[in-house]
Amino acid sequence: MKILNVDQIRSLDQSTIQHEPIAPINLMERAAHTFVEWFVDHFPDTIHTKIFCGLGNNGGDGMAIARLLLEHQYPIEVYVVRYAPRESDDFMHNHRRLKLLLDSIHYIESTADIPAIRHNEVVIDAIFGSGLSRPTEGIVKDTIQAINRAPATVVSVDIASGLYTDQPNEPTDVIIEPDYTLTFQLPKLALVLPKNGPYVGNWHILDIRLHKRFIDQAPTSYYFTQPSEARLLLRKRNRFSNKGTFGHALLLAGSYGKIGAAVLSAKACLRAGVGLLTVQVPQCGYTILQTVVPEAMCSPDRHQNILTGIAPSDQAGHESLDPSDFSAIGIGPGIGKAPETLAMLKGLLPSLKKPIVVDADALNLLAENRELLNHIPPSSILTPHPKEFERLTKKWSNDYQKLDLLREFAKKNKIVVVLKGAFSAIATPDGDIHFNSTGNPGLSTGGTGDVLTGVLTALLAQGYDPVEAAVLGVYAHGLAGDQVASQRGSIGMTASDVIDALRWE
Ligand SMILES: NC(=O)C1=CN([C@@H]2O[C@H](COP(=O)(O)OP(=O)(O)OC[C@H]3O[C@@H](n4cnc5c(N)ncnc54)[C@H](OP(=O)(O)O)[C@@H]3O)[C@@H](O)[C@H]2O)[C@H](O)CC1
Ligand SMILES: [K+]
Hints:
ADP-dependent NAD(P)H-hydrate dehydratase activity; about 40% helix; elongated; nucleotide-binding; alpha/beta; 7-stranded parallel sheet; binds ligand LZDS7PUF; binds potassium ion; lyase; about 15% strand; Rossmann fold; UDP-N-acetylmuramoyl-L-alanine:D-glutamate ligase; metal ion binding
């Protein structure tokens, strides 16, 4: 699903009005209806609801919502924040209609007009939507602060009032802090950025049937992965397949005290459908791996405690591993940053031809030896969390700058970068960014990154295109986390739970 910018959303509105065709006021009515449908599903019709409206079309939505909630017999109060002398046409229209039904509409011109808001009430925030053009000030700011101080549940229409749709806010900006945001038709960039968490709450998309062809043709570099899109990426399996069909992956993982990382990656790799798996671990991990992941072959490093090279020691009596024998390689979980491990990376990278997965300490080694980035095979997948990404690039001052850095880094190095976090951002070598839609805070626990590395390595090994592997793998990993959260809650979720919950259907 595309994420469009404010100008495109405005044009989309116009295009819908022209091509459907539909009168603007009816489009507003449709938006209000979809909002109310959601609202009725979530709040009983006994709940006291205060609707705060601005004077533009977001306020117009609020007026229409108020009328529809009245029809559903909700006890409502409507407050218009009079911050300017002008109102939009559609606001005025809905204002007139509401006045015919409601004895009194309240107007907020000074702080004395701001009502007390109780905990067992719901506030609908329809002050500003995508038309926000400057920071909130004066009576709007006072009203927003009062709403934020109140213990009520807050639902924002389209976007929280005061939050820009696609540009950074200043830290001093006063913005509604909603529990829910119900946004129309398409996700907005502001809704997926970590710093905006307090100004977004749980957000949902309301389909108001805007002009589909316009959306299909609109250029964008931002996407939000919908369940149906992820499912389409999943390849069907041929009944006449054998384990060779699904590739042979190699994982280079683990060091003394961190063999668990190798185990988690290996198990996840198998659960993500790889045909064959070899794991190279330091010798201290050999027995562990052979015991707890019997499905994997284990190649012991010549070193007892760290990884030093892809060929195992002759004394161990194993054949040398040839990187070109593997359909995909994943490097990094738990490997540490020993000089010998760095030397292994330096020796290995230039010899690789196929895309690999690079995670954890392998990323930190890259950050400390940036010339190695030149040897990462094109279309490889790097999976940094924000701190690792900062080490690879530089500090950013806001989430929008971070996205620019991410895009540039992926393009310059011709790689796929999965920036992990809520709504993980996947940057492609072409400069697109796909935001993931699954996952929850329970995934912020040790080992889930190792699981992701295993999953991505398995998908590469099965021949998935690297961008598709990243989008699908990150989606499935988050979905597994959501599955665990729905069964046993997100607190106490472990990486092993996530592996068990991986599903490919
Ligand atoms: N696109 C859709 O899918 C639909 C959207 N709808 C709703 O419409 C709003 C957008 O409405 P719009 O009238 O464009 O903008 P707002 O209601 O957000 O803002 C109204 C005007 O307020 C002025 N403004 C902006 N920032 C401030 C501020 N900080 N202080 C005071 N005034 C401000 C601004 O006018 P200026 O000329 O002064 O810049 C705004 O125009 C969208 O979010 C949806 O809720 C439709 O109802 C359905 C389809
Ligand atoms: K709003």
